[in-house]
Amino acid sequence: MTIVKSSGIPCKGNVNGDFEMLPSSLFNYIELGLITQNDYVIYSKLLKLYNTDYGYAYPTIQQLMVFTGIKSNGTIISGLKRLVEAGLLAKTSGTRGNNIYVVLLPLEKEELYIDVPEKVKILEGKISKLMAIAESDKERLQKFLLSKQEEESEIQAKEVGPKLL
Question: What kind of architecture, by CATH, is found in domain 26-114?
Fold first, then answer.
């Protein structure tokens, strides 16, 4: 395992130079299952590669594989497709074999939720299930702690009782 020395400096408020801000609303897209974590990485790299003079980014699939650490061109291609379907990317064919990508600003949560009500319903179902599991876990923990307490009381009662020779 490779261990890298930490800078020891908190990131928040101390980032200078080579830095791209990413909209936090992208996490709403991940939550709703519109994009994956890999897609988020692809989006962030395309944003970094975005050439403001031309108005687009134009990496090859292979370049995106190297830049993102994603080892499958299929994963890159699927990710690009999901980003386009999610309205986060506009893609057209370039003249030299490269595609042209325009990175688009994500919708805010309220607007996105209005746009994909079926995905919101699925997310609400997942949240409901997770909350039920959490409640069940709390109940099981309480029962366990109670039984542990009773067990300890029984052990103490046996130790206090008369000893037979």
Answer: Orthogonal Bundle (1.10)
